[in-house]
Amino acid sequence: MLPSADDAARVFAVSEITNLIKTTLEGRFPRVMVTGEVSNFRPAASGHWYFSLKDADAVIQCAMFRGSQRHARSVPADGDLVEVAGAISVYPPRGSYQLIVHSMRQAGRGDILALLDDRKRRLAAEGLFEQNRPLPTLPAAVAVVTSPTGAAIRDIIDVLRRRRTRITIRIVPVPVQGDQAASRIAAAVRYAGFHRLGETIIVGRGGGSIEDLLPFSDEAVIRAIAASPVPVVSAVGHETDWALSDLAADSRAPTPSAAAELVSAVEQDIAERIALRQMDILRGYRSHLDGLQNRLARVGEEELRYRFRNLVQPWYQRLDDARARIIDGVQGRLQHLRHRVALLHERIDGASPYEPLNRGFALIRDARTDSIVLRAERVPYGEPLRAQFADGSILVERIDDEKL
Questions:
Q1: Do 89 and 201 fall into the same domain?
Q2: Cα–Cα distance for residue pair 172/146, rounded to 1 Å
């Protein structure tokens, strides 16, 4: 029912004007066919689907209740181009209108998904999605590139403070959606990496539509993450959200809170693991010592002596053998030296000038100088000489043979 001219001067209550709009819209559009790109798809715990349909100029909120989903061939995803049939409805508590979807079919891929697929293939060919560096276990500092006012940074700070009491959190504030978001995020990642603001960099934001998350799939952001000198964790949106930054980063976390848990180990858990390991080592040593004591308890004094003798007997035998080899070697060496001494003694005796005296020879010396006379021609006649024999010496002189 359309409002009359009299309604222009009437003052309506909020519920009255809302009901009037509801009646008008629902009566005018009981069944419509709409085509558009799915955005911000969120299934509820009740099983109902809530999402938006959009084109280049407008957006409309949609709801598809669980009973109508049997007419859908697949679960839609952000970026899908679909054709839906439904009715326009007004939801008075929020004062908003929406499309109640009764059926849905795929109509192709949306422009955004096509753009992201093309970009994904091109950047993958350059090797920008191959990073997989390990994250430090106990980083002293963590850099966070995100909005300083969003829920994401509060969740990250809460988790890090709860799990680590001594960790430095350095926030690099950036807008996470809008025209300038991508360039600002890329610059912040480069800044955090160049100045080593943290041993790990978390890049992310809270949930949103596929359009809201587009800055984290921007080529400049992807290249900045891939070139980062420190590991990067991508934490964009909720668990079902995704962005190309998830592929470029070293690790992907489903939520900002999960990213904080990923980069920080609980100090108490580490201390407990160390204490448990210490107890395991002590129990192992105690068990080993108990085993040795039990073995000793089963062995008496005589058995110990027997085992000791068996243990040292080979060494005693080796000692006796070594002693015998040493003695034999020394004796053989002495015998050889004695033989050499005897031979040398014989050679010395044979070289003595007195040895020929025993064979009838005599040694002639000058009686005055006691020097040995080697040439008879050098001895003048009448010169006294001393002739030495084996048993003594006598005085002689040289005489002229002609006077004999």
A1: no
A2: 7
Q: Which residue do the tokens 């980083």 mark?
A: 139
d(CA 69, CA 72): 5
Within-domain flag for 292: yes
Q: Are residues 55 and 125 in the same domain?
A: no
> 204 and 100 share a domain?
no
Within a domain: 350:
no
Question: In terms of residue numbers, what domain contains 280?
Answer: 267-313
* Region 24-30 average pLDDT: 81
Q: What DSSP character marks residue 213?
A: T
Q: Under a CB-based contact definition with an 8 Å cutoff, are residues 85 and 102 in contact? A: yes
Q: Are residues 50 and 164 in the same domain?
A: no
Q: In angstroms, rounded to a whole number, what is the distance separating the alpha carbons of residues 248 and 234?
A: 8
Q: Report the distance separating Cα 125 and Cα 146, nearest Å.
A: 28
Instruction: Tell me which DSSP letter residue 24 carries.
Output: H
Is residue 167 within 8 A of residue 140, CB to CB? The reply is yes
| Domain end residue (candidates: 265, 299, 330) | 265
Please tell me whether residues 24 and 72 are part of one structural domain: yes
320 part of a folded domain: no
Indicate the number of domains in the chain.
4
Query: Token match 């089963």: residue?
Result: 298
Q: C-alpha distances in angstroms, 21 versus 16, 189, 241?
A: 9, 49, 35
For the chain, helix (H) and strand (E) counts, in that order, are 9, 13
Q: Are 212 and 241 in contact (CB under 8 A)?
A: no
% of residues, the chain, pLDDT over 70? 93
* Same domain as 27, residue 66: yes
Query: Tell me, what's the pLDDT at 5?
Result: 53
First CA to last CA distance, the chain:
194
Place of tokens 């984290």: 216
* Structure-token match 């959606």, residue found: 177
Going by DSSP bridges, is the β-strand pair 232-236/363-366 parallel, antiparallel, or unpaired? unpaired
Q: Would you state the structure tokens that stand for residue 137, as one six-digit string?
A: 């276990």
Q: Is residue 335 part of a domain?
A: no
Tens digits of residue pLDDT in 80-96: 888 888 888 888 888 88
